User: Fold this.
Amino acid sequence: MARLQSRRASWPIVFAQIAAEHRRLLEDVKSLRVNDPEVQALRQQAAAALEIADHAAASARLAEARTIVTTKRQMLARVLDDQKREEAVLVFEQARVELARLAYEQAAQLFAEATRLLPPGDIETRWTSWKKPEPSGGWGMSAAIIRL
Assistant:
């Protein structure tokens, strides 16, 4: 019984902490701005839900906003990876030109650069780029690669 009374005595402190955190949260949600109008609208809806202490609705709106941002980020990452691959192909072709000129050191540097440009998960692309046989038999390239 004494334990229950002790817990009840601390309730006003706990409720005051909850209220203070709620006010900080509401101010943060209201004050932060994002560039995407759709995401900003969802943030405003979350703030409105917090105004009436509807935490479930606020959480749901913020989850929707996050899904939008995540989807866009993933799409941009795919576009960036495609651009990296295109640039890598161009650098790889440039390296082959240098190889045809017997400029092995420059070719090796360009091959290495092309490989670094590829997105990290493109192991097959990296392997395919390097496993093509050299018309010269590889002697000059091997020496150039060793010097890198």
About this structure: The mean pLDDT is 82. Residues 104 and 141 are 5 Å apart (CA to CA). Residues 32-147 form one domain.
